[in-house]
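Lab meeting, item 3. Inverse folding demo.
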């Protein structure tokens, strides 16, 4: 009898083992109680009874995150909000490849790119409905990289929020790619991870993307931030309800979507609720805080009815915005996605009339030119007013001030005990002043690529990138003068010419001196490198020659560097180092070329740790030292072993034009 029992136990263990190891496509990759997500969402944490979270990520539920801010996403209640994603929530760019450019394919987990299960994240809350409460509300915003090219296809990522009430039954809110109301594209949602643009300039299918703005290249989108609930989610006082937030891929596992969720609360009634945000952009759709006189700017206003009841078109204007005196409205630039928008020339005011259904928005926009003659630092301040009906009596009895979502000025203008919902849209006037000099130290450039440099958003310097075999003209890392990175050149005649290009007109200035640090060493054979300084008429304003010459010393690297400048009378004139023979040996040097009168120039050479080694002043040049357009780098030889020269700490001295 004991033997039979043992056999039976063994047999049961074997069967149990078999059952355990059978794989199931429905197995959950990761789960935990999700309490941090629940607390981030709830306006009142005392209603929480239980919570649970699951997703398909095999590495610690990365499909959900609690955040204080992510680009344009900010909490609407308390210090934090929750973000659920079909990929890695909160990723700085929603692509699998973190190194830009990547394709817009998002992260997939257990199922693989086309397999099962689909990427999915699910948060479930069990809540106690307080006394006197009959409706549920929450704030939500949907983001997707399926937009715009996959709208209307089977690739239809979906957010579903389901409320199960014992007395009222089940109610659901669904936002998906096909039926979703996308108000915003990549340019409207900077730093959210969905601010991606097709590198080709036009999204279509699977694109290589990055976060560089392109006017028609927006490759993701988002809804407005809206409040859902009221009659859509009825509940009863004192009951326990279950709320499930689920976001999932549809059709494939490849393109990521995400859902912002915050401010879940109970109320006793269904209502109309108006919010309004106002931003100012440049003509490329980029948010700005500073501008210059005579710039054209675009104001964008989003008026949202976050309640469930209809905001009607009532007597009087639903929106008014008086333009500040330091801008001028551009005729016929005002647009509205619904309703009627006008410009009242007598009162210098934008007006809008129309209705806004529950849980929807209207977008208004209009353009203006900043007037000339404004002072540096002068503020252009602008704020619109929404007139709306708070109690559905067909009279606009309430006011809502437009808010700049990017700032909180600490002032409660609308007396609601909040300071972050009523901030005017401000622009600071910057009257550009030419700097005394600009610097390119290559520290912010990508190793192995060309270099470029801006000053106060104005691009003034850019190099070319050599693609010829046996040449090198690119940013280098690991060897530099003072700041990380330098610029490496190794140029043969067969590689043609390479360039440092200048656009000093962007700085409203002209060159008065040019300076660079360079490092050189000895070589095995004859080689040379020419630098021709060209103006915008293709004339030489200065020329330099770096030439390796042979010396009578008994060691392998017996070719050393001489530096000369071109003189129209004396032709090539050598600049000397501190060594006895005047050659340039293994070291860092600093060369400065500076204007000295109309057609004269000074050359100053220093060696690191030594100081000045040669100064030649008042040297004649064939044209005036101005209008620098480019420096041409080229060689007249094809050495077997081509020496490298490193350039760093490059400065250009300027005088205002």
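The presenter then showed the designed sequence:
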């Amino acid at each position: 009898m004991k033997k039979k029992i043992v056999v039976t136990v063994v047999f049961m263990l074997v069967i149990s083992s078999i059952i355990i190891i059978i794989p199931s496509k429905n197995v959950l990759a990761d789960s935990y109680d999700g309490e941090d997500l629940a607390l981030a969402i709830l306006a009142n944490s005392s209603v929480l009874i239980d919570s649970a979270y699951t997703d398909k990520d095999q590495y610690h539920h990365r499909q959900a995150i609690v955040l204080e801010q992510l680009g344009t996403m900010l909490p609407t209640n308390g210090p934090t909000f929750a973000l659920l994603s079909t990929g890695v929530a909160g990723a700085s760019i929603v692509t699998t490849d973190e190194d830009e450019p990547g394709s817009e394919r998002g992260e997939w987990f257990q199922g693989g790119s086309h397999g099962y299960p689909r990427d999915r994240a699910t948060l479930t809350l069990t809540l106690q409905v307080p006394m006197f409460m009959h409706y549920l509300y929450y704030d939500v915003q949907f983001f997707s990289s399926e937009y715009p090219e996959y709208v209307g296809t089977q690739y239809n990522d979906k957010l579903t929020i389901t409320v199960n009430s014992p007395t009222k039954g089940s109610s659901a809110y669904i936002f998906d790619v096909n039926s979703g109301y996308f108000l915003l594209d990549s340019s409207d949602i900077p730093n959210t991870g969905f601010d991606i643009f097709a590198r080709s300039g036009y999204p279509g299918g699977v694109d290589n993307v990055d976060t560089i703005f392109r006017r028609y290249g927006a490759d993701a989108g988002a809804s407005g931030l809206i409040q859902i609930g009221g009659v859509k989610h009825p509940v009863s006082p004192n009951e326990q309800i279950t709320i499930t937030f689920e976001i999932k891929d549809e059709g494939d596992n490849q393109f990521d979507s995400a859902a912002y969720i915050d401010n879940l609360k109970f109320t006793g009634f269904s209502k109309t609720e108006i919010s309004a945000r106002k931003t100012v952009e440049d003509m490329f759709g980029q948010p700005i805080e500073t501008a210059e006189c005579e710039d054209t700017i675009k104001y964008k206003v989003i008026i949202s009815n976050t309640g469930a009841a209809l905001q009607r078109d009532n007597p009087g204007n639903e929106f008014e915005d008086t333009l500040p005196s330091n801008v001028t409205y551009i005729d016929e630039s005002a647009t509205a996605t619904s309703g009627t928008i006008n410009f009242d020339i007598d009162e210098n005011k934008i007006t809008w009339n129309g209705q806004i259904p529950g849980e929807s928005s209207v977008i208004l926009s209009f353009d203006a030119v900043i007037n000339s003659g404004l002072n540096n630092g002068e503020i252009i301040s602008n704020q619109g007013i929404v007139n709306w009906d708070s109690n559905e009596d067909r009279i606009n009895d309430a006011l809502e001030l437009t808010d700049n979502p990017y700032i909180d000025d600490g002032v409660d203008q609308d007396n609601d005990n909040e300071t972050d919902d009523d901030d005017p849209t401000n622009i600071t006037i910057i009257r550009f002043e030419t700097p005394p000099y600009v610097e390119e130290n290559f520290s912010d450039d990508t190793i192995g690529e060309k270099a470029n440099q801006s000053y106060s958003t104005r691009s003034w310097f850019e190099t070319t990138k050599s693609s010829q075999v046996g040449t090198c003209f690119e940013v280098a890392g690991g060897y530099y003068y003072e700041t990380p990175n330098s610029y490496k050149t190794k140029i043969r005649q067969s590689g043609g010419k390479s360039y440092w290009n200048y656009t000093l007109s962007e700085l409203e200035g002209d060159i008065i001196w040019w300076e660079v640090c360079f490092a050189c060493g000895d070589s095995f054979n004859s080689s040379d490198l020419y630098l021709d300084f060209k103006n915008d008429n293709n004339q030489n304003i200065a020329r330099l020659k770096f030439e390796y010459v042979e010396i009578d010393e008994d060691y392998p690297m017996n070719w050393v560097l001489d530096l000369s400048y071109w003189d129209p009378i004396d032709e090539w004139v050598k600049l000397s180092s501190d060594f006895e023979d005047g050659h340039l040996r293994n070291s860092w040097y600093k060369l400065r070329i500076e204007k000295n009168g109309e057609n004269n120039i000074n050359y100053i050479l220093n060696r690191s740790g030594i100081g000045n080694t040669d100064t030649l002043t008042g040297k004649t040049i064939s044209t005036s030292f101005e209008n620098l357009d480019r420096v041409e780098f080229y060689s007249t030889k094809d050495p077997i072993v081509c020496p490298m020269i490193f350039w760093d700490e490059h400065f250009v001295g300027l005088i205002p034009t």
